[in-house]
Amino acid sequence: MFIIVNTMPISNTHERPLLQLDPWMPEYEGSVEIDPADGSASGVDPTVEESIWRGIKVPPVDFPPPLYFIDGVRRTEARVLAWSAGTMVHGLLGTVAAGTVRSEGRVASFEACLVRRFLILGGGYKRSTTVRVGNITVEFEGFASVSTAPGELGSELQELMRQLEARVAEGVIRDDKLVFIDGPLAYISSLGPVVGVIKRISQPYLDSAHFDLVASLSVGERTPLFLISDGKRDRFSWYLRVGERRSFDHTLTGIIRLEVRAVVGLDNAQRLANTSAALLVRFSSVATRDPRAPQNLVPIGALENELRRRMGDPLIMRRGIEQRIFEGVEL
Fold this sequence. Notes:
alpha+beta; 331 residues; eleven-stranded mixed β-sheet; two-stranded antiparallel ribbon; 15 strands; 5 helices
């Protein structure tokens, strides 16, 4: 993906903008998906920490180990169709998994890795089924969706993955642990020291005067906190650059947005923001090992690979599903 940017000062508007590269591989959605027509979000206060915006460089700090990183993955195994009373019913068989990386010093381990499988049917239909895979029988738990459009069933699978992530997180989060969750905190109810890590920028939240600072951040530097108030899950947020960019990469390469629940208070939010800025740089990935580098942190990338391994081989699973459908599965 290419992004058009103007690399010249505003006074040189006669200069033509240059294309810059989105370094994420094209099999993934882009690292920046901001719609310029959307503008800044309402209910955002960028002055809660600093009235004059500047980059904040945090010296290295030690946080009592261990650190925890939580993520989930999902996979559509097969799509199915049925006709009931002349009405088409869409469905899919899908697998979700979630787990934790525990990082302490130079040692990391996988913990609390869970795998669940679902048969999602639209139109309110629900049934479970089993699939024989080699010498193992796996169950696809029935899930009824009110949706009738096939594309919305994938969103249901995403929702089930987020719920499994939340289940794993609630078992990990404690006051004496620092937890980083890949993605926003929408599904997390715990009020412990947990930080959401959003690696894809789909909404700037800030007006252009404040967002301009984001592109100029150096590695390990963060923006001041800003408060996002939506009346449902108010949160403090900040941007951080965790990795370098090449000269031809777009200027937001290496930028992630982080968030904590506003109920933790401004002082705790500042502490978590400073701790994240001091720690996460060491976990940034490289393009030779991760197609979403540098934003996809190394523990998260390793966890995603491990979870996919535990989900099983997709081709073998597909053969098992084909055999089961051949045998007959009633709606």
